Amino acid sequence: MRRAVLLLPLLLLAAGCGSIGGGPTPLPTVVLEVGSSRSTPGPTFGEATASGVVVSARQAQLAFDQGGLVQAVHVALGDSVRAGDVLVELDSTSAQLELARAQRVLREMTSPAAIAAADQAVAAAKEVQDKAQKKVVSLSYPRATEAFINNLAAQITLARKELAGASRDFNNYEDLPKNDPDRARAELRYTNAQINLNKLTGNYNWYTGQPSEIDVALTQANLDAAVAAVQEANWSAAALRGEPIPPEASGTMLTALQSAQDAVVAAEAGLAATRIVSPFGGVVGRVEVRPGEFAQAGQAVVLVTDLSHLQVETTDLSELDLPKVAVGQPVLVDVEAIGAQAPGRVAAIAPTSQTLGGDVVFQVIVALDEIPTGLRPGMSVTVAFGALP
Fold it and tell me: Is the pLDDT of residue 18 over 60?
């Protein structure tokens, strides 16, 4: 243990100064305790103190995202407010009109008549799909019965015989003048036989032939398009009725509906932007505008402070005392302005330092276990780390 020795000067008194035996009586030596050589590691109660200031854990400087003319101010300095209370309003005439227009468009798109039309569109799309499906199915089956095809073959045989006879007959009259009746009858018989054979041959080839790759691809594409149209029509009708639809839902009508819904949301946000509301319960600490003034975008117009969640921030804790401070450590906060003390605990320690008058200091956040009556943000305090309540 280190000691400082203070030697008091010996004062020789003129009379009565002496001791038994005739010698002077020495004055005792006074020893002052100024430190400790204890080896216990870590900080102990009262080893570190720091100045600090009371702040609110929740404080908001509120501003408008857009500029505008202030229409109403609903609070004054010192007023208590709740979360969601409207504090200041801008002129919202145009925002209200835009919201009404967007709501009207959406209301028309989701009206009973619009829903009925959507159901009709579903029915029409299904009818087209059924026809396309039948055409696809027909490609997999014969185009005619075997008896019908055999009948065509027999007709072709007779048509060929008829054409051969007509050809021979026409050859007998071919050299006659074109206006000769016998030649004309022979030529008519020949041409009719040729036309009939060509028709029968074409029918036979179609009924007995297979569809081409182009026919198959086109028929399948028509069916795919019809199926997609039915799906989109169903999605649109469901959305109009307010039923859930999958994320991959698409379609022109659905896109228009979603655009109308987005317009309403945007208009509601535009109207909300004309109002400043309190984000939490607290007390109004500052009001910077009055009705009729123009509020600039980003200009803080109202300050709201939560007085129920006060804490302390130190301002001059030395780097030399920092090893004596730890998160969770108990502290005692002395508030001279109101003559009160409050217990608390270290909530956080700044990871980086600051410079104060050439000294290196670290900020420490202290959470108060109780809030003394009359405590206000901005009050100066003294923090004793490790002090008992």
Answer: no
Query: Would you give the DSSP letter of residue 373?
Result: T
Mean pLDDT, residues 245-263 taken together: 94
Q: Name the amino acid, one letter, at 164.
A: A
Q: What does the DSSP 8-state code read for residue 377?
A: T
Residue identified by tokens 């229409």 is 71
What is the helix (H) or strand (E) element at residue 211, kind and residue range?
Answer: none
| Tens-place pLDDT, residues 328-362 | 999 999 999 999 999 999 999 999 999 999 999 99
Residue 150 lies in a domain: yes
Q: Are residues 313 and 381 in the same domain?
A: yes
> Do the domain assignments include residue 329?
yes
- 297 three-state secondary structure: coil
Q: Which of 32, 36, 34 is nearest to 1 (CA)?
A: 36
pLDDT, tens only, 227-241: 999 999 999 999 999
Sign, CA dihedral 259-264-268-270, equals positive
Each residue's pLDDT tens digit, 286-305:
999 999 999 999 999 999 99
Quick check: 240 and 121 in contact, CB under 8 A?
no
Write down which residue in 186, 210, 234 finishes a domain. 210
Residue 4 lies in a domain: no
pLDDT tens column, 48-103 = 999 999 999 899 999 999 999 999 999 999 999 999 999 999 999 999 999 999 99
Say if residues 294 and 71 touch (Cβ distance below 8 Å): no
Centre a 10 Å sphere on the Cβ of residue 301 and count the other Cβ atoms it contains: 21
Cα distance from N-terminal residue to C-terminal residue, the chain: 29
Looking up tokens 């709501």 gives 103
Residues of the domain holding 194: 140-210
- The amino acid present at 2, given as its one-letter code, is R
The DSSP 8-state label assigned to residue 25 in this structure reads P
45 within 8 A of 387, measured Cβ to Cβ: yes
- What does residue 255 show for φ and ψ, rounded to 5 degrees? -60, -40
What CATH number is given to the structural domain containing 378? 2.40.30.170
Which residues does 129 contact at the CB level (< 8 Å), separation at least 6? 223, 226, 227, 229, 230
For residue 375 the two structure tokens come to 């405590």
